[in-house]
Amino acid sequence: MTDPWVALEPGADPAERVRVLRRAHDAFTKAGTVPRPVRSVVADSWRRSARAGVGPDGTASVELTDGDLGTYRAEHPLARVMPLFRELMGTFAADGEHLLAVCDAHGRLLWVEGHPATRRQAERMNFVPGARWAETSVGTNAPGTAVALDRPVQVFAAEHFIRRVQPWTCAAAPVHDPRTGRVLGAVDITGGNGLAHPHSLAFVQAVARAAESHLALLAPDRRETDPPQLTVLGRDEAYLAAGGRRIRLSRRHSEILVLLTRHPEGLTGDELLCAVYEDESVTPVTLRAELARLRGVLGPGLVASRPYRLSVPVESDIAVVERRLAAGAVTAAVTAYTGPPLPASQAPAVVRLRNRLADGLRAALIAGRDPDLLADWAHAPWGEDDLDIWRALASARPTAAARARLAALETELAAPASWTRH
């Protein structure tokens, strides 16, 4: 296999590969082993699916219908490029008896269009608008795995984790916000085994890039007078959009800038030193050198001294989530929360901020008991092991998958106590 992201190498017999994959899938569901020739991307996805409590005989759940679906789609950024998707892929889907599908960043299908007979067949497995096709909900599938991995992927036949999806083949590519780089969702082509070709993967990738270019043209121009914007959530290295530039910061510089946005009044050198460095032996000279490098990256004028502070207000995505949460707009807060701030940072003040933000969101979700919001958190990487959230979800929406995942977490939690007895 020359490209591990393409399902079939040139000259491969699709029918024979299907038979081999079905045997491999049976072996994995029975014994947890993945024999060759299963691609590594598929094997890893099967393991993630099993850890998430997905069963091979499960099905997708429909989470948005009617007015709720219409409102959500209308407000989603990818609605602006749906005419482009239809122009580039609509005829191909209809003529080839395929489906054009678009999902959000949580793997929830927003649009499913294409050949009428193929749509009717897809409806039998809930491949419909409003259904959650995240990898953590229905296992390996192109749109769900593409947003999980943030890269284009092709899934062929019995590579799908759920058996009822195995007659299908699909290829999907993530679509990013051209300004922030965040995943907005994915565009997918779904149909028969004829799609197991390098061209279908290249096709959806090209369509995704065209959509990103179109979104960049539709975005309002950011003048040099616009306030700087700091993007931190879900990133180990923050981005600062300022003065018409988009600057990627190192982890240490990200930590410093995050903390300065939290303290417009400024921080003394000792305060910033204690906030940033876990190691108490680090000297003020190290901090001053780091700040000098940061000024070199940002340019003069943004970071002032005595005390260390920002010379102009800087808006951050953390503050957006906090304001929405404080206003009781839990849905809007969860939508804006794209991951923990600087998740790998061990800076003491960043760790406290990260925990406080997550605790506030979790408390609001558990109190609100909205199954869709709970599912969004539980199926995100930061929520997949969150026992309290899974308990709330299993209570609010007691599906077999939710109960299975909760039971697995409770078993894992109890396991260390049993080990200590041996």
UniProtKB/TrEMBL annotation:
The keyword Ligase does not apply. It holds the Pfam family GAF. The keyword DNA-binding applies. Signal peptide: none annotated. Residues 244-310 form the OmpR/PhoB-type domain. Keywords: DNA-binding. This is GAF domain-containing protein. It comes from Streptomyces phaeoluteigriseus.
